[in-house]
Every structure is written in structure tokens, then in C-alpha cells.
């Protein structure tokens, strides 16, 4: 399946698939859009294109990522695991054995090399150029999402910076509170790469912000890639087509040629920090006001008939659930690369992704579950995970009732609970100190004698013969039910269903 080249292509695809509704009524980006979207997301509803946002001539697109189906459409796959398989092929590349393997290996390497963004001379994102006094962020239909928000926030930006030491690009999704017609706050949190670039910069740091990208490039800004990997290169690899970039008009940075809108500007290291927030966040709470750098806008460039993209975060589930689920699936091969005994993992949407990780493992030795907990607490952004539940490989980590069953059945809290401490998500309000606090790991695997237990009882299962017999004779019993799948004592309540509640 081909992926969308830009936001328009994406909107056209969504419309063809019956996945987008145009709203022609005038709707206020202040609170009203949020209430409509909140209801739409919870009903598994369509993407919405508000054609007449109050106070702006620019339409607002929202809920483009709000269902699993749309996320798969965005990536041109049947299931999100297919994306992981594509990346997994690269991670698992072995020295080739024989000519056919060499050719395959070369093809894979070529597709990586071909993913690098291409710089072109002209881009639709610069059809209109507004500089200096012409810059007015008030033209954009920026949402004030929740009643307690400090003001309007740009919520779906791809923020482009460079590492001053290496010149390497970083793209991150960091919300931006509009402070004045020509400035915003830049909310890169303490663990993020954009902030690292800022800390290494002396004096002025150029920044560009792309709004309204093809869905894969927009997603890639939210992907927790290692610092040295260019998010736009990953986007090119996943799109099967490199991104085209153009030189900024007021900054020495390259910006997506196909973006709807680009904000160019700078962050001055010596400028007084702004008070940012409160903001109703994906934690389901307002994050309190805090100090963040000011982004000064030197130019707005855009298409003649630009479309502004937005997203609402709040009490889960919201639209960002599927951005997070895409990351969970896409990064599974990389997680397995480092911790190969991991079979699968699930970051429940209701756990705001960093609060809980359920992981299944091929347990091979005493204390193995605890080894895996510590590995996760040392792994990239997963290191911020507050709670980890480890189950055996046959448990479906996406089936929360099954997980709950094994937590209840297999855990001796005195023996199987690990309490430790470490870094926590910037926005977590529960720990006594910001950024650091307690962590909990629960080992819900079956225990062996070397773990100091009595004999572990077998799990209840019906024999294959009797199951086959009942399958064959089902109609004879006259129960009037289609043959239910043999349960095997399994509880089933899939995460997909939980997500929709
Ligand atoms: C909708 C949305 C909004 C986000 N807002 C922020 C934010 O305001 N600040 C932040 O540091 N991370 C935010 N994130 C998470 C980052 O985008 C994510 O951690 C990403 O990996 C950061 O890029 P980096 O690793 O290059 O720093 C947001 C993610 C999503 C999906």
C-alpha cells in the first residue's frame, strides 16, 4: 500500500476511505473543538476537518490518528506489527551467506541509504512568506484545549533543531504555548533531544517548526529515536520515499518542502525563560506552570491554502493513544535486540504509556523476571517506566484480564515485588520530587524451586481429545450457540476493547 506524500494526499486518502468528515459550521478552537473531538475519539469516530474555525481563515485538521485503522492507513500496512517487521529486518541483518543473501542485504542497505532526505530548490511550504512585522501567530486556529490551560497551544509540531557539536538534525514533538503574535514557549522536557541541543548551544539557536506533514513524518517527530538518528530519515524509510526539504528563508535549517506551514525562528540562550502552562496533558491532569525557553518567530511560510493540524491530549484515551501504540509496536524489534528474552510488551493507554509496562519473557533462570525489569529501567525512554509487570511467554500481554489473573495467582508480594527508584517522566505529578522517584516491578511469572518456593502447581487445561470431541459433537448438544472457542481456562478482555471504553 502506498503511503501519503503530504497532508493533502493524506486527507484525500482519508476521504476515499470514509475516514474524514468536513465540518463547515463555525467552531471555536477555544474549548469547543476539544469537546467535539473528545466525544468523537471515544466513539472511534472519523478525522475532522474544521473548515471554519472561529477567528481564523485556516482550516483545522484533527483526529487524523484516532483509530488503529487510520494509523495502519497512514503507514500503508495491515497491522502495526508489519511496520515493526520492516525495521526488524534491518536490525537482524547478519553477515550474508551466499549470493542471494548478499543481494538481499545490499537491497536493504540501499533502501536505508535512499531514505536520507533530499534538499530541493523550491517547496510548496514557502508559497507564502511572512517575515518580521507580518508574522502573526494569531492567524492560525491554535486551540486552547482545556478550561485551565494558560492559553492557546500548538500541539502537533515537528520541531527541528541541530546539535551544535555535530550538526546532526533532531526532530521532536514539543507543544508550544503561544505567548505573543511572534513568540511561543518551547516545551522540550528534561530528557528530550531538542533540549540537549539547546543546552549545548551558546548564544542563539535556530529552530524551525513544521506543521501539517504527511502522517508518517508527523509521527516520526514523536518517535523516541536515539539522538544520532535523524527522525526524517526514519520517516523516509517508512514512507519508502525520502522527504524533500528546502532551505529555510530566515534560518540555516532545512524544512519539509511539503509542509502546510513552517515557523522559523530562534531561541536565545540568554533570554529570560517564559512561564509555560498550566496545560491539560496526556497524564489526565494539568501540568503546572514551569519555566521554558522562548521561541521567537522570524518568519511564517505556508501554502496558499494552508491547513493547520492539531491534536488534543487529556484523560486517556485520546487521539495520541495510537501514536503511542505505533511506537510500542515499531520499537518492539529494537527492544528485543537489547533484551532478546522479551517476547512481547504492552504499554496500556490508560497508563499514559510511561506509568505501566506489561512484558512477557522466555524465562530461563531464577530471578530472570527481575533482570528484565532492570533492563527496561535502563532502556532509552522506557527507563522512565514507573511500574513493570513481568509474565511468562504464554500470557497475552494485551489481554489485561489475563495479566491480572497471573498477577493475582502467581505473586507473593513479599518475594515478587521489587521497589526501587530512578528517573520518572517530566510530567509525573505523583513523586515527591519532580523527575525522580519510586518504581515498582511485579514478577508474575511461575516460580521454580531455585527461587525458594514450594512445588508450583500445574495450570488447569482441558485435554486435546476432549476439546476435539466437544468441537465435533457441539451441534448434538442442541445449545443453540455457535461453537465457542475453547477457553482453556483463559480469561479474555483484550486491550483493544479496554481502549475503546
Ligand atoms: C501529541 C504529543 C505531544 C507531545 N508533547 C511533548 C512536549 O510538549 N514536550 C516533550 O518533551 N515531549 C512531548 N511529546 C513526546 C515527544 O514528542 C517524544 O518524547 C519524542 O521522542 C521527543 O523527541 P526527541 O527524542 O527527539 O527529543 C509529545 C508527544 C506527542 C505524541
Description:
By secondary structure, the protein is of the alpha+beta class. The chain has two domains: 7-309, Pnp Oxidase, Chain A (Roll); 339-457 and 494-500, UbiD C-terminal domain-like (3-Layer(aba) Sandwich). The chain is 27% helix and 24% strand. The protein has 15 helices and 25 strands. It has helices at residues 7-16, 32-42, 68-75, 80-91, 99-113, 193-200, 215-220, 231-239, 320-330, 332-338, 368-376, 400-410, 413-416, 464-473, 495-500, and strands at 20-27, 47-53, 60-62, 118-119, 128-131, 153-154, 158-162, 169-172, 176-180, 183-185, 204-211, 244-247, 254-256, 261-268, 274-276, 279-280, 286-287, 290-292, 294-302, 308-309, 342-346, 356-361, 387-392, 417-423, 436-443. Strands 5, 6, 7, 8, 9, 10, 11, 14 and 19 form a nine-stranded antiparallel beta sheet that branches. The protein has a five-stranded mixed beta sheet with strand order 21-22-23-25-24, with helices on both faces. Strand 2 and strand 3 form a beta hairpin. The radius of gyration is 25 Å and the shape is globular. The protein starts with 6 loop residues before the first helix and ends with a helix. Mean pLDDT is 93; it is low at 493-501. The structure holds flavin mononucleotide (FMN). Flavin mononucleotide (FMN) is lined by residues 155, 170, 172-175, 187-189, 192-194, 222-224, 311, 313, 320, 323. Residues 155, 170, 172-175, 187-189, 192-194, 222-224, 311, 313, 320, 323 line the site of flavin mononucleotide (FMN).
Amino acid at each position: 500500500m502506498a503511503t501519503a506524500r503530504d497532508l493533502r494526499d493524506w486527507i484525500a486518502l482519508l476521504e476515499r476511505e470514509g475516514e474524514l468528515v468536513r465540518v463547515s459550521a463555525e467552531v471555536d478552537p477555544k474549548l469547543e473543538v476539544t469537546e467535539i473531538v473528545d466525544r468523537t475519539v471515544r466513539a472511534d469516530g472519523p478525522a475532522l476537518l474544521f473548515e471554519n474555525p472561529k477567528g481564523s481563515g485556516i482550516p483545522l485538521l484533527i483526529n487524523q490518528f484516532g483509530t488503529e485503522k487510520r494509523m495502519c492507513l497512514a503507514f500503508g500496512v495491515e497491522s502495526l506489527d508489519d511496520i515493526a517487521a520492516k525495521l526488524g529486518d534491518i536490525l537482524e541483518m547478519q553477515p550474508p551467506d551466499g549470493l542471494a543473501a548478499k543481494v538481499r542485504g545490499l537491497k536493504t542497505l540501499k533502501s536505508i541509504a535512499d531514505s536520507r532526505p533530499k534538499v530541493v530548490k523550491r517547496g510548496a511550504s514557502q508559497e507564502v512568506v511572512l517575515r518580521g512585522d507580518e508574522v502573526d501567530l494569531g492567524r492560525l486556529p491554535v486551540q486552547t484545549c482545556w478550561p485551565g490551560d494558560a492559553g492557546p497551544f500548538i500541539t502537533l509540531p515537528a520541531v527541528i533543531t541541530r546539535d551544535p557539536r555535530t550538526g546532526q538534525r533532531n526532530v521532536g514533538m514539543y507543544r508550544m504555548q503561544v505567548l505573543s503574535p511572534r513568540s511561543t514557549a518551547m516545551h522540550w522536557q528534561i530528557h528530550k533531544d531538542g533540549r540537549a541541543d539547546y543546552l549545548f548551544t551558546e548564544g542563539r539557536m535556530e529552530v524551525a517548526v513544521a506543521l501539517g506533514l504527511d502522517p508518517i513524518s508527523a509521527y516520526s517527530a514523536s518517535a523516541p529515536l536515539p539522538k544520532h538518528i535523524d527522525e526524517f530519515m526514519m520517516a523516509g524509510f517508512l514512507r519508502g520515499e525520502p522527504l524533500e526539504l528546502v532551505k529555510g528563508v530566515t534560518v540555516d535549517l532545512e524544512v519539509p518542502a511539503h509542509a502546510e506551514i513552517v515557523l522559523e525562528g530562534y531561541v536565545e540562550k540568554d533570554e529570560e525563560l517564559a512561564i509555560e502552562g498550566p496545560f491539560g496533558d496526556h497524564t489526565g491532569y494539568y501540568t503546572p506552570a514551569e519555566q521554558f525557553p522562548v521561541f521567537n518567530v522570524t518568519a511564517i511560510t505556508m501554502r496558499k491554502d494552508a491547513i493547520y493540524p492539531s491534536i488534543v491530549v487529556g484523560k486517556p484515551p485520546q487521539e495520541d493513544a495510537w501514536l503511542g501504540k505505533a511506537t510500542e509496536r515499531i520499537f518492539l524489534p529494537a527492544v528485543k535486540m537489547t533484551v532478546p528474552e522479551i517476547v512481547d510488551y504492552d504499554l496500556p493507554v490508560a497508563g499514559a504509556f510511561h506509568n505501566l509496562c506489561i512484558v512477557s519473557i522466555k524465562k530461563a533462570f531464577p530471578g530472570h523476571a527481575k533482570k528484565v525489569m532492570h533492563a527496561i529501567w535502563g532502556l532509552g525512554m522506557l527507563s522512565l517506566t514507573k511500574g513493570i509487570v513481568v509474565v511468562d511467554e504464554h500470557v497475552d500481554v494485551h489481554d489485561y484480564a489475563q495479566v491480572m489473573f497471573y498477577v493475582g495467582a502467581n505473586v507473593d508480594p513479599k518475594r515478587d515485588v521489587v521497589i526501587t527508584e530512578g528517573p520518572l517522566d517530566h510530567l509525573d505529578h505523583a513523586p515527591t520530587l519532580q523527575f525522580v522517584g519510586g518504581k515498582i516491578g511485579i514478577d508474575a511469572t511461575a516460580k521454580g524451586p531455585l527461587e525458594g518456593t514450594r512445588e508450583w502447581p500445574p495450570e488447569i487445561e482441558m485435554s486435546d481429545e476432549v476439546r476435539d470431541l466437544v468441537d465435533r459433537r457441539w451441534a448434538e448438544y442442541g445449545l443453540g450457540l455457535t461453537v465457542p472457542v475453547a477457553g482453556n481456562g483463559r480469561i479474555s478482555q483484550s486491550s483493544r476493547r479496554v481502549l475503546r471504553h
